[in-house]
Amino acid sequence: MPTSQPAAASVAPYDAVVLVSFGGPEGPEEVMPFLRRVTGGRGIPDERLAEVAHHYDRFGGKSPINDQCRELRAALEADLRRRGIDVPVLWGNRNSEPFLTDTLRDAYDAGARRVLAVTTSAYSCYSSCRQYRENIADALQTLQDEGRELTVDKVRQYATHPSFARVNARLVTDAVRQIGQPDDDKLRIVFVTHSIPEAMDDTSGPGDGEGNLYEHQHDEIAHVILDEAGFTLDRELTGALVYCSRSGPPTQPWLEPDVNDHLRSLAADGITDVVVAPIGFISDHMEVKFDLDVEARETADELGLNMVRVPTVGVDPEFVIGLVDLMTERAAQARNVPVEMVAWPGEAMPPVCRPGCCPNLREARPAACGMD
Ligand SMILES: CC1=C(CCC(=O)O)c2cc3nc(cc4[nH]c(cc5[nH]c(cc1n2)c(C)c5CCC(=O)O)c(CCC(=O)O)c4C)C(CCC(=O)O)=C3C
Ligand SMILES: [Fe+2]
Questions:
Q1: How many domains, the chain?
Q2: Does one domain contain both 245 and 265?
Q3: 277 belongs to a structural domain
Q4: Which reaction is recorded as catalysed by this protein (predicted)?
Q5: Which among 97, 181, 183, 273 has the fewest CB atoms less than 10 Å away?
């Protein structure tokens, strides 16, 4: 268990916490407006939009993501209360109601002036970090124009907080036990994350010119999961990182291989059993429910591969405790109280993003919670 720090059982100076997420439709009539909002001006072909709309239609036009945010919000609140921290825990989205701007307006009207944000995105790249910081900056600008002045800080990206890899390792361990294939040579672990344009991966990271931090963080987590699950089970586990949910024009290179292509090559190599672990996501939303539970499972069935899909961290208490530890850590930093930033695997991401990190390659826009 990550150590929760009773001495730091406070989120002062913050007077509210906000969970910031992607959003999703909750009924058939919300699907197209949602998709237009998501892709606004980003050159996603119409055929791709129609195809994605169909993914949602299969689930009655409702994405599970908002209910999962409601659950996570409640779980964060429960752990804060357990620690005796009586701060309001709010929730706001980028692409669907409740919109972040409205959430922060309500927070202001209820008296909040300094708010601490945590997003539903663990890794570092434009889509998973800076774009949320732009959303926060947009919301703060709108509210400032209305005469409502508030500030927002953010907990650091948490792919490298130990609770995240540890919970994922436990979930993979359980899935390997469940699949019951004792021959290490017949079994593969398939780690899956959201594909992004190669250019976005190349520029992901703290802006020191290194880049490829998105892929690197996933690689490191996949590696420690194999190591830890293998140690727990006393087995030689093998796996690879692959991608789902590619969009954008076919001419634009995105991270590969696609999960379905990977399953085909595993089957061709004589693999019979696959444990599919969506380490790129924190809840079983549409990219998991459709791309893995429908599409990848169909591929596995066609190939005669036995597949177990690992759950995402969701509201696993150890994960929730980790996020609340990150809140008290960020609050201590805001109070100038020294605090150890535990990290595994790799390094702790900075709580205040560095200039030029994970840049917006289309247009420079204001972003909150950073130096630029
Ligand atoms: C890195 C990353 C995450 C993980 C970090 C995070 O969690 O933020 C993520 C999450 C999600 N992506 C989601 C949905 C979509 N993403 C799209 C499009 C895109 N994603 C991208 C990247 C990511 N996306 C990119 C580079 C694009 C193309 C350009 C653009 O448009 O920015 C599109 C457009 C249509 C299409 O798929 O082509 C949709 C509908 C949902 C909601 C699921 C639900 O409803 O349950 C979630 C959680
Ligand atoms: Fe996406």
A1: 2
A2: yes
A3: yes
A4: Fe-coproporphyrin III + 2 H(+) = coproporphyrin III + Fe(2+)
A5: 183
The 3-state secondary structure of 247-258, one letter per residue = CCCCCCCECCCE
178 and 293 co-located in one domain: yes
Same domain, 116 and 195: no
Q: Which amino acid is at 105?
A: R
- 10 Å CB burial of residue 336 (0-12, 13-18, 19+) is exposed
**63 in ligand 1 pocket by Cβ < 6 Å?**
yes
Q: Could you give the CA distance from residue 199 to residue 192 in angstroms, rounded to a whole number?
A: 19
**Does ligand 1 lie within 6 Å of residue 31's CB atom?**
no
Taking only the tens place, the pLDDT of each residue in 285-298 is 999 999 999 999 99
Residues 150, 200, single domain; the answer is no
Pair 187, 60 in one domain: no
Which amino acid is it at 273? D
State the complex-level ipTM.
0.95
* Residue 371 DSSP one-character state: -
Asked if residue 132 lies in contact with residue 20, where contact means CB atoms within 8 angstroms, the answer is: yes
- pTM: predicted TM-score of the whole model, two decimal places: 0.96
- Looking up tokens 């200039």 gives 355
Is the same domain home to 97 and 180? no
Q: Whose CA is nearest to atom 25 of ligand 1?
A: 196
**Ligand 1 proximity of 248 Cβ (cutoff 6 Å):** yes
- By most ligand atoms within 8 Å of CB, the mutation choice from 19, 26, 39 for ligand 1 is 39
- Could you report the per-residue pLDDT of 133-165, keeping only the tens digit for each? 999 999 999 999 999 999 999 999 999 999 999
What pLDDT does residue 1 have?
A: 46
DSSP 291: I
